[in-house]
Amino acid sequence: MNVALIKFLSLLTLAICHCDAINIKPRSSWGAVAARSPARINGAVDYVIIHHSDNPNGCNTETSCQRLIKNIQSDHKGRRNFSDIGYNFIIGGDGNVYEGRGWGYQGSHAPKYNRNSIGIVFLGNFESNKPSENMLQNAKDLIAEAVSGGYLKENYTLLGHRQTKATSCPGTALYNEIKTWPHWKNI
């Protein structure tokens, strides 16, 4: 798929889901490099998987968040040989939600769940402290948008990354927070 078509589909997705209410920044806002043959997901998925980027300082300005996201994409495409940044959406400490792979694309964030999930990463390390209330609300709003837009089943299951593989992600403080949200399930 060419870059122009990917950008068009991303803009069309934003227009259809009315995501401007939660301030989703498109891939172009952070200077995303084109994905290599992104796999599509048709229909609503069953899971939301929550991650943290594990960067000690996170980000609190648009510029610092964009730089961090570009670095993550570079790592994922380079060292990890993913087709793109692994996550569908990124929650920044600057008050924005950033489009990663976006709606309807298979992520590379949780083995065995990638084909049936939306991956959301919080920028920062949330081992000891949970994200800001604004970041948490942005994630909740994004999940609600996924359901209303038909990308996520109404009876979805919410998981922390550590529930899908041996990792400390999404950090203990964030994990303890999401365990209080509707749809979290102990598996």
UniProtKB/TrEMBL annotation:
One of its GO terms (molecular function) is zinc ion binding. It is found in: Secreted. GO terms for biological process: innate immune response; peptidoglycan catabolic process. Disulfide bonds join 59-65. Residues 1-21 form the signal peptide. InterPro entries: Amidase/PGRP_sf, Amidase_domain, Peptidoglycan_recognition, PGRP, PGRP_domain_met/bac. Pfam families: Amidase_2. Residues 22-165 form the Peptidoglycan recognition protein family domain. GO terms for cellular component: extracellular region. Residues 33-171 form the N-acetylmuramoyl-L-alanine amidase domain. Keywords: Disulfide bond, Immunity, Innate immunity, Secreted, Signal. It comes from the Eukaryota. Belongs to the N-acetylmuramoyl-L-alanine amidase 2 family. This is Peptidoglycan-recognition protein. It comes from Musca domestica.
